[in-house]
Each structure stands twice: as structure tokens, then as C-alpha cells.
Amino acid sequence: MEKWWPVPGGMEAPSESESSGPGGPGPAVGSFQPSEHQHVRYNPLRDDWVLVSAHRMRRPWQGQVEKPPQEDVPRCDLSNPLCPGAARANGEVNPQYTSTFVFDNDFPALQPDAPEPDACNHPLFRAASARGVCKVMCFHPWSDLTLPLMSLAEIRAVIDKWAELTVELGASYPWVQIFENKGAMMGCSNPHPHCQVWASNFLPNEARLEDRTQRQHLQERGVPLLLEYARLEAQRKERLVVENADWLVVVPYWAVWPFQTLLLPRRHVCRLQELSDGERDSLASIMKRLLTKYDNLFEVSFPYSMGWHGTWRGGTGQRVRGESGHRVAQ
User: Fold this and answer.
1) Which of 157, 192, 261, 264 could pair covalently with 230 via S-S, beta carbons 3.0-4.6 A apart?
2) Higher pLDDT, residue 231 or 327
């Protein structure tokens, strides 16, 4: 899929050759079917369009087929800087932790005391301050576990720590980003269940854009964008992956990545710390179910990138959103 911006007046209809492929001609051009014909879909969160070339799914597969990786991760390896009792690059030794463990990233992308950039007298060469803190959060002391292999109680402890960090860091910074890159394919350098938490004095581009689009939707329709979207997807069930009383997981209508999913609450929630005990338990349950499904797709420990988007400090309180955009070959 590609990003696309339709021009005023609509788009030119596809030719007959464009609506057919190696598998034979598709339906007539005049009878549009979303699973057969190319079209563009609107992403209301980003205010842009995605090109869907559905007819290309009939291409014969000629790509390489990879063998499942043979992973043999030891439960505890003191050469792994995330393990209990291991020494990290800065010389500090991790405690013998038994649940979650949080520490300052030894090689942070953001630091709290970075100097201000010099002033620039030309608008094409602008710079601004970027300050913050970067934390690493271990989910579990065992390196051979991942979130779907952990117990519900252990996943619940992770969720509670996420909420705690959001409160702690949100007191000093307007944006707190929790994200996990799982697997070597996603650039994860340490085989140990963990995520990162970045807090910054600025809003990242995607957060800033989503804040604007959701403010606009609320003004125009009187209902939070993602709450309305969740209700519609729950009714239609076309893209529903898994659900429970408090949460649902869908493949977004505007999905770009293969196996991309969106995790949404059924009620209006702004931040993780606002979730009730019951909602945290059901979040642990649906995360385990979803991530287990990913692992079962190809019978491997599925690589992914996952991040939480909540309302920023000073925002209007539009949403809590968990998004998994799984970066695999398209």
C-alpha cells in the first residue's frame, strides 16, 4: 500500500487491463468490490489517504520462503545486560528483580539537560530544544519469555507499571511514549522481554497530528473519533480480530502494514492510569490472546513494533490507543 492524495473531482476509473491479473479478469469496472478493485481509503487520524491495490493479491507468489529461526534463548545469561544481576555498559549491576524492573537508558536518545540550539535567522533552517528522559522497562526476569508466554498476573504487573510511569513522567513532560520493538528483525538488540519509555518536552509528529484531527472530529461530530470508530467496527465485525467486554482489536480500515492491528477501549479513556482494575485485567487478557495469535500465524515468536498513544498533558482528553504496526516485508 502507498500513501495517496485524491485530487478534487475524484479519480479516473481503472482500465479493463488494470482490473485483471494472472488469475483472470476481475469483476467489471462498473461494479466496484473493495476486495477486487484498487481504491484509496481515508485515515482520519492522520488526515491522509492510503492506496489499496486489492487486485494485486492475485499475483503468483515468487518470493523467498524463510525457514523459522531456531531460537535458543537461555533463561538467564549474565552477559545479557537486561538480566537480573548482570552488569550494564555503565558499570551498574542490575538487582535480582523478580517482576518488572525500570532503569534509565544507558544510551538515551533524549537527555533532560541538553542545551538550547542557536537561533537561526532563516525559516528553512529552524531548530528547537529537545529534552526528555529515556527509560528501559523489563517485563520479567526470564529472558526466554515474551508477553504472550507470560501469565495474566505478570502481564497485569506490566500494565500497572506502564500506568505508574505515565503518571510519574507525565508530571514533568507533556508526552510519554511507551513502545516495544520485539525481535531482532525489529532492531531489538537484547533477547529479553522489555520495552522503552520516552518522555519529551515536545509532541512527536504523529501525536501532534492525531491531536489535531481528533479535536476537529470532536468539534464536528460531538463524539471522540476513536470511540465512534470502535463502536462501528464492533457492529460491523468485518475487521474484528478479538474482543472482550472492555476492549476490541481490529485491523484498521486504513491499515498500511501487513498484520497491522489497533487495540481500542470500549469507553472513553484518556490515559492508562484511568483504567479500572477490571479494565486492566481485561487488557492483560486481550493482549495475551492477540499476541498469541501473532505467534501462531507462522509458528514463530512474531516480531512487531507496538506503542501506546494517550492524551498528552495539556491535551483535550481524546483517547487511549494501543497500536501494533508490524513491520514485515510487503
Assistant:
1) 264
2) 231
